[in-house]
């Protein structure tokens, strides 16, 4: 087992909606109630759960974007980044400028970014258009650029939410394959999905969360069997980009 | 709620350098985006203030004439710093609100967002202010030794602007309606900052009241330096600077305190 990188124990997170002055209802919704998990270097941790189980909130917690309202969160000195596409894109700027801006927002150093830029552009297949404003791009081109930037950020812990590949069908295949390769390599990854097929093919260890609580944790085989059992009557819907 | 290791990105070496680079690049990007959005681009940074100053100049030079010599210049020297003040605070008040989706996707110290709007508004001020100085020179107000005092006046105003901008940015995500209140407060302030008149023409009582407004003293200082060729009241400026620095600290602390709350606010 590698070194411990992230740990949360009995974490809860709520979102409050303060309504307005005239309807004094302060609704508080606990998106996470009692989640415990650890992420160690080199592993691929799968998080499985149905829609609304709190997966996105959990990723935000792991990414250090929010803090738990109850329980604990500890980061043992690593950079954990959510794989977010087209972060901070400004349509009026060129693809190159957006790549720099987005990469810096995702935590890359400017120098590192400039070094990787040719690779990013190449991967996105945008060599001829990279100095054109992004607003002139097709949605497929924009998706390619967004993916390529996020893919080239190499955080200590990569947090992936569901969709692995984007763009037109050809690029979906390419990006998905690259993502799989990256996840299966010695990168530390937390992969969130409601698809047991995706998780099974990529993860060593799995945490199942349900209604904001850790329901089960263990080897992929064990947890997925239990998960599937409980959802037998709910056939899996197709994922945007199945692996 | 305990035992958090410091920020997620663990204030490792290079933390400040990295975010400074981000602030600078994002400022550049937004300035460029703003200019490429319009037909004449960069020219708007100059044209827009010129147009709005032109309106005031017209109204007060021809419609409501006051008895001040060179009233047009008197007015413009007041308006340039005023615009820095009001645009910066207005933009700061929206800085966090407008970046909700960004805050939910990546961790970044939230103070970065108002610092970007601060930097871009400060940059625009410097462009317009430089033009003003050139303009004054052409009209027979050459730079003199008193211009040295600008090295105090401009940074002091910078502190004031920065402090209020950060405080505005910190508070509005909780109560977005405050932006409307703020807009009207700024309008009120506009009329009581001695932009249209000398403060001392209103009598001592009104003057001491207006003196509570730091902008009054700042605008007066700009006029003394640029138009009258005299030294401003440095002691008063230093006091303003000191209080503003405290405001800046308060704003920064507020934003840092709610660092992890802002991404959770849903509006």
Notes on the structure:
The complex is a heterodimer of chains A (243) and B (267). Chain A is an alpha/beta fold. Chain A has seven helices and nine strands; from the N terminus they run βββαββαααβαβαββα. Chain A has helices spanning 55-62, 95-105, 110-123, 139-152, 169-184, 196-202, 220-230; strands at residues 4-17, 27-40, 44-48, 70-75, 80-82, 157-161, 188-193, 205-210, 213-219. In chain A, helix 2 (95-105) packs across helix 3 (110-123). The longest helix of chain A has 16 residues, at 169-184. Chain B has ten helices and no strands. Chain B has helices at residues 15-36, 43-63, 71-95, 100-105, 112-138, 150-171, 178-191, 204-210, 214-228, 234-257. The model of chain B is unreliable at 1-10 (pLDDT under 50). The A-B interface holds A 13, 15-18, 60, 63-70, 72-82, 84, 87-88, 90, 92-93, 97, 100-101, 104-107, 109-110, 133 and B 1-5, 7-10, 12, 14, 18, 21-22, 25-26, 29-30, 32-33, 36-37, 102-108, 174, 260, 263-264, 266.
Name some characteristics of this structure.
heterodimer; A: 243 residues; alpha/beta; 6-stranded mixed sheet; 3-stranded antiparallel sheet; B: 267 residues; mainly alpha; 10 helices; 69% helix; disordered N terminus
**How many individual helices of chain A?**
7
Shape of chain B: globular
- The count of DSSP E runs of length 2 or more, i.e. the number of strands of chain A, is 9
What general form of chain A does the structure show? globular
N-C termini distance of chain A: 27 Å
Number of helices of chain B: 10
Largest interface chains and counts: A-B, 41 and 34 residues
Largest sheet of chain A: 6 strands, mixed
Q: Helix amount of chain A, in percent?
A: 25-40%
Low-pLDDT sequence parts of chain A: none
Rg from alpha-carbon coordinates of chain A: 19 Å
Biggest sheet strand line-up of chain A: 5-6-7-3-8-9
Helix/strand/pairing category of chain A: alpha/beta
Unreliable stretches of chain B, pLDDT < 50, 5 or more residues?
1-10
Main sheet characteristics of chain B? none
Radius of gyration of chain B: 20 Å
Please give the share of residues in helix of chain B: 55-70%
Order of helices and strands of chain B: HHHHHHHHHH
């Amino acid at each position: 087992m590698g070194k411990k990188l992230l740990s949360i124990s009995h974490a809860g997170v709520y979102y409050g909606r303060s309504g307005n002055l005239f309807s004094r209802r302060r609704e508080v919704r606990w998106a996470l109630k009692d989640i415990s998990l650890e992420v160690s270097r080199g592993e691929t941790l799968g998080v499985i759960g149905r829609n609304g189980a709190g997966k996105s909130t959990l990723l935000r917690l792991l990414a250090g974007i929010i803090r738990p309202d109850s329980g604990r969160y500890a980061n043992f000195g690593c950079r954990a980044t959510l794989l977010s596409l087209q972060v901070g894109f400004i349509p009026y700027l060129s693809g190159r400028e957006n790549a720099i801006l987005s990469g810096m927002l995702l935590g890359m150093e400017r120098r590192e970014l400039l070094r990787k830029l040719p690779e990013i552009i190449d991967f996105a297949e945008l060599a001829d258009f990279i100095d054109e404003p992004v607003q002139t791009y097709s949605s497929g081109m924009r998706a390619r650029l967004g993916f390529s930037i996020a893919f080239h950020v190499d955080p200590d812990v990569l947090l992936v939410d569901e969709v692995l590949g984007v763009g037109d069908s050809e690029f979906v295949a390419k990006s998905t394959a690259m993502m799989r390769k990256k996840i299966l390599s010695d990168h530390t990854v937390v992969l969130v999905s409601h698809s047991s097929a995706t998780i099974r093919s990529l993860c060593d260890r799995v945490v199942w969360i349900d209604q904001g609580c850790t329901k089960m944790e263990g080897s992929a085989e064990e947890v997925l069997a239990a998960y599937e059992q409980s959802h037998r009557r709910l056939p899996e819907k197709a994922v945007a980009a199945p692996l | 709620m305990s035992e958090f290791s410091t920020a997620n990105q663990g204030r490792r070496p290079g933390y400040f350098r990295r975010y400074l680079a981000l602030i600078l690049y994002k400022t550049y990007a937004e300035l460029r985006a703003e200019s490429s959005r319009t037909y004449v681009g960069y020219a708007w940074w100059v044209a827009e203030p010129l147009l709005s100053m032109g309106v005031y100049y017209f109204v007060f030079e021809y419609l409501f004439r006051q008895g001040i010599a060179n009233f047009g210049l008197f007015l413009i020297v007041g308006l340039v710093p005023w615009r820095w003040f009001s645009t910066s605070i207005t933009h700061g008040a929206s800085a966090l609100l407008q970046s909700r989706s960004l805050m939910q996707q990546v961790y970044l110290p939230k103070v970065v967002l108002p610092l970007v709007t601060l930097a871009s508004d400060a940059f625009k001020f410097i462009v317009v202010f430089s033009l003003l100085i050139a303009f004054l020179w052409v009209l027979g107000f050459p730079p003199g030794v008193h211009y040295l005092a600008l090295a105090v006046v401009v940074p002091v105003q910078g502190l004031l602007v920065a402090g209020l901008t950060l405080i505005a940015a910190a508070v509005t995500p909780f109560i977005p309606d405050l932006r409307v209140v703020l807009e009207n407060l700024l309008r009120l302030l506009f009329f009581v900052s001695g932009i249209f008149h000398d403060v001392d023409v209103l009598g001592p009582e009104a003057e001491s009241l207006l003196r509570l407004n730091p902008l009054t003293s700042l605008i007066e200082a700009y006029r003394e330096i640029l138009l009258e060729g005299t030294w401003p009241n440095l002691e008063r400026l230093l006091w303003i600077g000191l209080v503003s620095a405290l405001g800046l600290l308060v704003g920064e602390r507020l934003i840092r305190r709610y660092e992890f709350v802002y991404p959770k606010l849903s509006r």
